[in-house]
Amino acid sequence: MRAVQRDDEGGALMTEVEVTVPVPIEQAFAALADGWLYASWVVGASHIRVVDRNWPAVGTRIHHSVGLWPLTMQDVTKVTAVDPPHMLELDAHLWVIGAAWIRFELDEPQPRVTRIRMFERASRGPGAFIPGFAQDLVFTPRNQESLDRLAHLIIGRSDGKS
User: Fold this and answer.
1) Judging by beta carbons within 10 Å of its beta carbon (0-12, 13-18, 19+), is residue 84 exposed, middle or buried?
2) Angle, alpha carbons 47-75-10 (nearest 5°)
3) Could you tell me which Pfam families the record lists for this protein (predicted)?
4) pLDDT 10s digits, 110-147
5) Could you tell me the residue ranges of all domains in the chain?
6) How far apart are CA 38 and CA 44, in angstroms?
7) Which CATH architecture group holds 22-132?
């Protein structure tokens, strides 16, 4: 796994982390395409209330809770772009903090091995005014842990299938 901070096309700094899993790209993307699994690997997500039909089609949403019970907040994450099995882009809302732009890119550097890269930056609300280096301090460890959890989930689901 590696973490870097880079400029996107708009010049805003974003955090990038990556992980590699020993499965075909379609199997890795299938975990991202299952909205009901998000609470099992996204750090901070505590409960999935509803996943819109046809997730992850553009415009569909995951209705989720964030935080530890009983101090949870309810919000949504919406798909803004998707190119199965190579890319999923999300707009994740978090009540008073604002929203984050999140993008997952998947590729196969070799057969039956998938690299998953996750990019994130605060995009709206008070969080968007936090300097990039400070966002990185929060997003990098959180996203590294999220991708590690996702990798374990993907590998566990693939036992005997790859």
Assistant:
1) middle
2) 120
3) Polyketide_cyc2
4) 999 999 999 999 999 888 888 888 888 888 999 999 99
5) 22-132
6) 10
7) 2-Layer Sandwich (3.30)
